[in-house]
Amino acid sequence: MQSNMGGIDRALRAVVGLGLIGWGVKSGNPWFYIGAIPLITALVAWCPAYVPFGLSTKKTVTKEN
After folding, report:
1. For 4-15, what is each residue's pLDDT tens digit?
2. Confidence band (pLDDT; 50, 70, 90) for 65?
3. pTM for this structure?
4. Angle between helices 31-44 and 7-27 (to 10 degrees)
5. Buried b vs exposed e over 28-46: b needs ≥16 C-beta within 10 Å?
6. At a CB cut-off of 8 Å and minimum separation 6, what does 63 contact?
7. Residue numbers of the domain that contains 42
8. Which of 3, 5, 10, 59 is the right S-S partner for 42, CB 3.0 to 4.6 Å?
9. Using CA atoms, how far apart are residues 42 and 53, in angstroms rounded to an integer?
10. At 4, phi and psi to the nearest 5?
11. Are 50 and 56 in contact (CB under 8 A)?
């Protein structure tokens, strides 16, 4: 499994995931579970939804001679 997420993408997912988890815990609704998805994908730096489309937000470094 190769990383396909960049830093900004990971940070936004982590913030959204933690926000949904916090809101779900506070209000007692099932959004707690939904918030785990973006948080986990941010932690592992891999999004399975990007794979079928060949997407990646990770910058690639090219070596110039």
Report:
1. 999 999 999 999
2. low
3. 0.82
4. 160
5. eeebbeebeebbebbeebb
6. none
7. 7-12+19-50
8. 10
9. 19
10. -130, 20
11. yes
CA atoms within 13 A on the CB side of 53: 8
Sign for the pseudo-dihedral over CA of 7, 12, 15, 20:
negative
Residues 16-47 pLDDT 10s: 999 999 999 999 998 889 999 999 999 999 99
What does the alpha-carbon distance between residue 30 and residue 35 come to, in Å, rounded to a whole number? 9
Total structural domains in the chain?
1
In a domain, 28, yes or no: yes
